[in-house]
Amino acid sequence: MRTTAYRPQSDGLVERFNRTLCDMLACYVVDEPEEWDRYLPFVTFAYNTSKQATLKDSPFYLLYRREPILPNDIKINHHYEMEGNQHEEYSRQWKKAQELANQHLFKAQTKQKKYY
């Protein structure tokens, strides 16, 4: 398909993400709209760690093979280490999650194609 670069009609995925990001930012900057850039890292982290309806998993998990470690998850002097063959188990679970995400994505694409 040949399209013009930076044309909103031809880049629906990016336009949808921008709309979602703006809607999320609007919740934080009601009183101070000029301070939107202060909240951007927190809003993008919230988006990346939320389960997506299509993929049935969070983008963070699919990219890094684990759930994020949040400040309230960390105990004082507690180190996160893998014992024995936990690495193999994590790798297996991550590959399974990626396969499931691909299946969910294919189903969603098929459904959208049917609607179109």
TrEMBL record:
Record GO biological process: DNA integration
InterPro entries attached to this UniProt entry: Gypsy_RT_Integrase-like, Integrase_cat-core, RNaseH-like_sf, RNaseH_sf
Domain Integrase catalytic: from-to ranges: 1-67
Source lineage: Eukaryota, Metazoa, Ecdysozoa, Arthropoda, Crustacea
Name by which UniProt lists this protein: Integrase catalytic domain-containing protein
An example Gene Ontology molecular-function term: nucleic acid binding
